[in-house]
Amino acid sequence: MTKLKNTQIELMHIKLELDNGRTQHFRSFIDQYYCYKNGYVTRTGRAKWTALFWKEIVSKNAKQITDQKLVVKEHVVPLKVITHKLQKLAENNTTTLPTIQSVLDRYTLFATITKKEDKLLREAKLSSEMPIEFYNTDDPLYNDVFARYKKVGIEYEILLGG
Question: In the chain, where are the structural domains located?
Fold first, then answer.
């Protein structure tokens, strides 16, 4: 299957789930959409999750590490937040493939961070949430996809393709 066809299939999966009030399979559909869209696939055309390590966005600390056991791959904007934004589309009856794609393309980013940095996010209660400033239109962190990292002091680099 072509890259375009696979990304369209994942968008259709998400639309079907939204139209039926379901979200339990979003992680799979959203992650696969991202992999297909960005070419992280195996030779046989399947999404390749491990290819996301040390790509796109990498914390400066994780960049110094070569042992995959000491880092984590994570959504820059937590999946829970992305899911909520997609559910808002359903509430507003705007679940078209282009609107879903727009949300995914804006908020679905992956980063490689250290396990210590992941712990910082957990301790700040930002594992599955964005900081309040992300939602405040008067704040410099408003709608900033890197707001969590900025709040806890994670320095990052955007690499080729990011």
Answer: 3-158
Q: Give helix 97-107 / helix 79-91 axis angle, nearest 10°.
A: 160
- For residue range 41-99, list pLDDT tens digits in order: 888 888 888 888 888 999 999 999 999 999 999 999 999 999 999 999 999 999 999 99
Q: Write the burial class of residue 86 (CB in 10 Å: 0-12 exposed, 13-18 middle, 19+ buried).
A: buried
Alpha carbons 137 and 135: distance in angstroms, whole number? 6
Phi, psi (degrees; rounded to nearest 5) at 47: -60, 135
In the block, tokens 């909520």 appear at 84
Q: What's the full length of the chain, in residues?
A: 162
Question: What's the rounded mean pLDDT across residues 9-35?
Answer: 94
Q: What average pLDDT does range 11-30 have in this prediction?
A: 94
DSSP type of residue 47: B
